[in-house]
């Protein structure tokens, strides 16, 4: 399993992060959260005063930030120009702006390059929206995680420290719609992906299912 690449895609709140970190931790693999990279890019644009709805203005700045991701599943880190943004990228302003920024082709091209360089020789669990379809289609294991909209909103609201479930659900569904409808690398189930609907399972059960898929494939 040492060089394996495990691609985990799915909509917001489907359990991708907890599952991916758990699988990486159990198997001694590295972990990459590509959503955090898109959030870091968005954080940079907002801080720089770029109008995030102006795709040309966003495209003009994509090469400006130095975005670095730490790949330890037990302590994932993300920084922009040396500044730790792990907390800042989860704030509502970034969450609301990340889908339009992520739809800009130049943003995707820049981060694709970074993602592939981190994946490198493999030995990593990578989570996102387009890992199995675009970033690493040759991944040995591809998983597409989903969950009921209610379950996703409840989980995400709890993660956010008890924010309003109805508002969280509206925000998740709005992001899903933009992520699934964009022209470049939309959210989709990749060819050869194993679909797991996590609604009826505990986190540990989902992790075990993915670990079993990795064992089968390697
Ligand atoms: O996974 P997370 O919810 O943190 O991702 C934030 C946003 O980043 C998504 O809503 C999506 O717009 C974008 N994203 C993407 N491609 C990826 C990962 C995330 O477009 N591979």
How confident overall, as mean pLDDT? 94
CATH topology: Rossmann fold
Number of strand segments: 8
Low-confidence stretches: none
Biggest β-sheet, characterized? 5 strands, parallel
Family: Belongs to the cytidylate kinase family. Type 1 subfamily.
GO molecular function, one term: CMP kinase activity
Keywords: ATP-binding, Cytoplasm, Kinase, Nucleotide-binding, Transferase
EC number: 2.7.4.25
Would you give an account of this structure?
The protein has 218 residues and is an alpha/beta fold. It has one domain: Rossmann fold, CATH 3.40.50.300. The protein is built from nine helices and eight strands. The radius of gyration is 16 Å and the shape is globular. The structure holds cytidine-5'-monophosphate. Cytidine-5'-monophosphate binds next to helix 2, helix 4 and helix 8. It is found in: Cytoplasm. It catalyses: dCMP + ATP = dCDP + ADP; CMP + ATP = CDP + ADP. This is Cytidylate kinase.
What's a quick, concise take on this entry?
The chain is of the alpha/beta class and 218 residues long. It has one domain: Rossmann fold (3-Layer(aba) Sandwich).
Notable traits:
globular; Rossmann fold; binds cytidine-5'-monophosphate; single chain; 218 residues; alpha/beta; 3-stranded antiparallel β-sheet
Topology (SSEs and partners):
Layout: E1 5-9, H1 16-27, E2 30-33, H2 34-47, H3 55-61, E3 67-70, E4 77-80, E5 83-84, H4 92-102, H5 105-119, E6 124-128, H6 131-135, E7 141-146, H7 149-159, H8 165-181, E8 194-197, H9 203-217
Parallel strand pairs: 1-6, 1-7, 2-6, 7-8
Antiparallel strand pairs: 3-4, 4-5
The chain binds cytidine-5'-monophosphate.
Subcellular location: Cytoplasm
Keywords: ATP-binding, Cytoplasm, Kinase, Nucleotide-binding, Transferase
Binding site for ATP: 10-18
């Amino acid at each position: 399993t040492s060089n394996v690449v495990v691609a985990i895609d799915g909509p917001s709140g489907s359990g991708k992060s907890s599952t991916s970190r758990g699988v990486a931790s159990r198997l001694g693999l590295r972990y990459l959260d590509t959503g955090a990279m898109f959030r870091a890019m968005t954080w940079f644009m907002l801080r720089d005063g770029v109008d995030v709805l102006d795709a040309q203005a966003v495209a003009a700045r994509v090469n400006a930030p130095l975005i670095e991701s730490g790949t330890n599943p037990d302590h994932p880190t993300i920084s922009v120009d040396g500044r730790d943004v792990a907390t800042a990228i989860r704030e509502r302003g970034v969450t609301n702006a990340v889908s339009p920024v992520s739809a800009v082709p130049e943003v995707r091209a820049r981060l694709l390059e970074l993602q592939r360089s981190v994946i490198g020789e493999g030995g990593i669990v990578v989570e996102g929206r387009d890992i199995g379809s675009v970033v690493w289609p040759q991944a040995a294991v591809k998983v597409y995680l989903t969950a009921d909209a209610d379950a996703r909103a409840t989980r995400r609201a709890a993660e956010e420290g008890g924010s309003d479930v109805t508002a969280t659900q509206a925000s998740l569904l709005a992001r899903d719609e933009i992520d699934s409808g964009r022209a470049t690398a939309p959210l989709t189930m990749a060819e050869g992906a194993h679909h797991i609907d996590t609604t009826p399972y505990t986190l540990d059960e989902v992790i075990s299912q993915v670990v079993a898929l990795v064992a089968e494939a390697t």
